Amino acid sequence: MSGLSDEDSKLVTLARATRARTGAAEGAAVRDGDGRTYAAASVALPSLTLSALQVAVAMAVSSGATSLEAAAVVADAGADRFDGEVAGTSAVREMAGAGVPVIIVGPDGSAVASAVT
Q: Is 104 helix (H, G, I), strand (E, B) or coil?
């Protein structure tokens, strides 16, 4: 994961580990304004479907975070999956405002895309 700061690499590692541990379609991690991290997996229940990024943002908010610095999303999908907005990016933007980087990687940690809210 060249080009990423140590802190952003940590987000990718947390997202990959959460996804692998749960076997979920996606893993995500966010870092709040105090440097705390929250990692989550996507939820796919008959009555509830949430992206991993949506869950990670919800975890941060429910823990009292008031801002976000960065986010990472890990999924199997290729770059074409991320041509539009990643599910949950709007939650990041709503909580933190514009300019928060969202790093998008494949399961092996290779960069697929990046976005800025």
A: strand
